[in-house]
Structures are given as C-alpha cells and as structure tokens.
Design goal:
This protein is an alpha+beta fold. 19% of the residues lie in helices and 12% in strands. The protein has helices at residues 3-7, 35-38; strands at residues 13-15, 22-24. The mean pLDDT is 93. The chain binds iron/sulfur cluster.
C-alpha cells in the first residue's frame, strides 16, 4: 500500500487494484496535507 493512501484520513487517495494508479478524489480531500510528508518521493502537492 502506498504511504499516502494509508495515511489519508478521508480516503481521498485510493489505489486502483488493476492499474495500481493512485486516484485522487478532490471532493473527499480536507487539505490536511498528511500525504505530503508521507510520500518518500516528494510526489504530493496540495493546491486550493
Ligand atoms: S491533503 Fe487530502 S489527499 Fe492528502 S492526506 Fe489530507 S485529505 Fe488525504
């Protein structure tokens, strides 16, 4: 499981079981930014 998916408290980040892509649900995101330091590749950014 991706660290960002695991740490997201609202399930805004999920992993597609077939493509293994991380999907983002903007409506579920609360902007807590926990996913930013969780990513070992600094791939996450939050824009509002
Ligand atoms: S900023 Fe959004 S996507 Fe990132 S952990 Fe928080 S709720 Fe989830």
């Amino acid at each position: 499981m991706r660290a960002c998916v695991t740490i997201c408290p609202t399930d805004a980040l999920t992993r597609d079981p077939e493509t293994r892509e991380v999907k983002f649900d903007k409506n579920a995101c609360i902007g807590c930014e926990l996913c930013i330091p969780a990513c070992p590749m600094q791939a996450m950014e939050v824009h509002f």
